């Protein structure tokens, strides 16, 4: 008979426990990947645009050639947000690691005044900055595209624009999303323009011949405009026949943009905002985009917390992210504006010490009311109506570009002789300090209206490096929700081990300081989580919520394979090879 001593008994028990733990250990979660490719990836809001960009790359072009083609193709197939009459931002990283960014944001006309949207009592006049001729800022898209082509492109503009011109001539198929939008806005188009336009004919409820899903829309007038630009260059839009048609149209409708405004417009190359989060380097757009600064601030505020341990979309992780967003958006409203008109304390706002001070009064026990949060003390002193696309080429170049008209179809003014809508970016200024714009964002003097000034934006095109190597390019439309959607997508991959497509598709939430509510995508968060947050003092909005961003991104996997993430919330498409 074998005698087991206490010592051996304990030893055997320990072995059994260890063995049991090993057997019960969960296998790593299998990541559901999106579109995979070996060499190139283009992800945009429309299949036609993504395919045109991919063809440019197949024919030997680089990411910068492809981005021009994609941007211009969205002008044709996605007039909801893409337009020659708008502007945007682009962040890039070349294969050699060199980074840069370009600002082709719209500007206020020379005749603009700080009180142009106020009545005699100093109150904002309803819709004046959002709809019609006075809402239009000087467009920057064409200037931006030609500047990119000149500095970074490898193909002539005429060759890049050719497939886009053919798309405008031959047309594109209407999707269900587009049909719904055209039907919704058709009466508004007629009212603002005083007549039916291309995108309202066939979309009224009582129209005899109705346009249906799958029908093609052709825009031969836009094809002619693009052909003139391809033939004559940038000056065609800012000084040539196109410029004169545009100015005559705006003047006839009561607007204030002149030929001089167009001639004076120039896109500006700017130094990107760079920040870190753990082993990531985040490369973002500087002011007049608020995206890069806010993203850097939020990451700095999150870094001391164990987000991975808290888990994805748990009460704790939602609390920390919400409270960091609350403080960053409060600073946004006070400090940020056009850097050519304001001194912006970027280094201080994005420092670790400042982030630590901003989060000092945060507690997991309860919400910090926005009424108790003001902008920070510095020593020494944008909606779905935007579109984003991400590209990585076969050479290792990466671009993130976000462009917009601001509101849906911008000002709703359609230049029928040119074939495109005009923006309503003037609403992104602080029409009156303390008054919200169309996205509920509050502004201050730093973003007041001044002639030739660029309005503040939430657009956040972003490129991320991991351990010094290209890792992700990402961005989204969504107005004020852009920053928070980009943030959560990066966190989903970095901290929660998701693939690009999973990260893009995951449920999102949003907070922007004022109004003091946390918006959740409907039916995506459990009652237990929402009730717990409400008990801590958070005001929840879930029913009838707008879509929180429509993210498009590309992730570089460890073996160099590219994964495209095209947001299921829209008609977005990833194309790669």
UniProtKB/TrEMBL annotation:
Residues the entry annotates as binding L-glutamate: 105, 404-406, 428, 457-458, 479
Active site: 386
Pfam families: G_glu_transpept
GO biological process, one term: glutathione biosynthetic process
Signal peptide residues on this chain, from the entry's feature table: none
Gene3D superfamilies in the record: 1.10.246.130, 3.60.20.40
EC number: 2.3.2.2, 3.4.19.13
Keyword Transmembrane: no
InterPro entries referenced in this protein's UniProt entry, alphabetically: GGT_bact (IPR051792), GGT_CS (IPR055262), GGT_lsub (IPR043138), GGT_peptidase (IPR000101), GGT_ssub_C (IPR043137), Ntn_hydrolases_N (IPR029055)
Post-translational modification: Cleaved by autocatalysis into a large and a small subunit.
UniProt pathway: Sulfur metabolism; glutathione metabolism
UniProt keywords, alphabetically: Acyltransferase, Glutathione biosynthesis, Hydrolase, Transferase, Zymogen
A GO MF term: leukotriene C4 gamma-glutamyl transferase activity
Record keyword Hydrolase present: yes
Reactions this protein catalyses: an N-terminal (5-L-glutamyl)-[peptide] + an alpha-amino acid = 5-L-glutamyl amino acid + an N-terminal L-alpha-aminoacyl-[peptide]; glutathione + H2O = L-cysteinylglycine + L-glutamate; an S-substituted glutathione + H2O = an S-substituted L-cysteinylglycine + L-glutamate
UniProt subunit comment: This enzyme consists of two polypeptide chains, which are synthesized in precursor form from a single polypeptide.
Family: Belongs to the gamma-glutamyltransferase family.
Name listed for the protein in its UniProt record: Glutathione hydrolase proenzyme
Organism listed in the record: Leeuwenhoekiella aestuarii
């Amino acid at each position: 008979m074998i005698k087991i001593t206490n010592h051996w008994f304990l030893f055997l028990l320990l072995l059994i426990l260890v063995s049991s733990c090993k057997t019960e250990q969960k296998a790593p979660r299998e990541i559901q990947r999106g579109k995979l490719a070996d060499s190139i990836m283009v992800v945009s809001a429309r299949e036609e645009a993504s395919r045109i960009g991919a063809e440019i790359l197949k024919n030997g072009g680089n990411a910068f050639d492809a981005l021009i083609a994609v941007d211009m193709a969205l002008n044709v197939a996605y007039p909801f947000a893409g337009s020659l009459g708008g502007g945007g931002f682009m962040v890039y990283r070349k294969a050699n690691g060199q980074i840069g960014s370009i600002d082709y944001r719209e500007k206020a006309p020379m005749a603009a005044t700080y009180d142009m949207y106020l009545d005699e009592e100093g109150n904002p006049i309803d819709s004046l900055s959002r709809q019609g001729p006075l809402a239009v800022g000087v467009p920057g898209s064409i200037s931006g595209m030609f500047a990119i082509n000149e500095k970074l492109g490898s193909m002539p503009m005429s060759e890049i624009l050719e497939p886009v011109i053919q798309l405008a001539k031959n047309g594109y198929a209407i999707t269900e999303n587009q049909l719904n939008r055209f039907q919704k806005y058709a009466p508004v188009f007629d009212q603002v323009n005083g007549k039916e336009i291309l995108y309202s004919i066939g979309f009224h409820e009582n129209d005899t011949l109705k346009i249906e899903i799958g029908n093609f829309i052709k825009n031969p007038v836009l094809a002619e405009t693009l052909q003139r630009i391809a033939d004559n260059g940038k000056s065609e839009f800012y000084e040539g026949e196109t410029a004169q048609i545009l100015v005559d149209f705006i003047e006839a409708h009561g607007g204030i943009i002149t030929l001089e405004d167009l001639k004076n417009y120039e896109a500006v190359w700017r130094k990107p905002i760079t920040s870190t989060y753990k082993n990531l380097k985040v490369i973002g757009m500087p002011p007049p985009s608020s995206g890069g600064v806010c993203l850097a601030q939020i990451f700095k505020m999150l870094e001391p917390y164990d987000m991975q341990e808290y888990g994805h979309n748990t009460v704790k992780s939602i609390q920390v992210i919400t409270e960091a967003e609350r403080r960053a958006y409060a600073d946004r409203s006070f400090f940020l504006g056009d850097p050519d008109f304001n001194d912006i304390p970027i280094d201080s706002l994005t420092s670790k010490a400042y982030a630590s001070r901003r989060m000092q009064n945060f507690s997991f026990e309860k919400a910090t009311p926005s009424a108790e949060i003001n902008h920070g003390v510095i020593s020494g002193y944008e909606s779905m109506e935007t579109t984003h696309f991400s590209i990585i080429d076969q050479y290792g170049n990466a671009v993130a570009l976000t462009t917009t008209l601001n509101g849906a179809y911008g000002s709703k003014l359609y230049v029928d002789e040119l074939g495109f809508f005009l923006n309503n970016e003037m609403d992104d200024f602080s029409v009156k300090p303390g008054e919200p714009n169309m996205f509920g964002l509050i502004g201050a003097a730093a973003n007041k209206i001044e002639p030739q000034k660029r309005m503040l934006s939430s657009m956040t095109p972003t490129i991320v490096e991991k351990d010094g190597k290209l890792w992700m390019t990402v961005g989204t439309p969504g107005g004020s929700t852009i920053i928070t959607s980009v943030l959560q997508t990066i966190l989903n991959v970095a901290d929660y081990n998701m693939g690009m497509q999973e990260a893009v598709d995951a449920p999102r939430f949003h907070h922007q300081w004022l109004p003091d509510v946390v918006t959740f995508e409907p039916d995506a968060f459990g009652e237990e989580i929402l009730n717990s947050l409400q008990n801590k003092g958070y005001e929840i909005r879930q029913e009838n919520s707008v879509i929180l961003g429509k993210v498009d991104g590309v992730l570089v996997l460890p073996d160099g394979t590219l994964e495209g993430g095209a947001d299921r919330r829209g008609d977005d498409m990833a194309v790669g090879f």
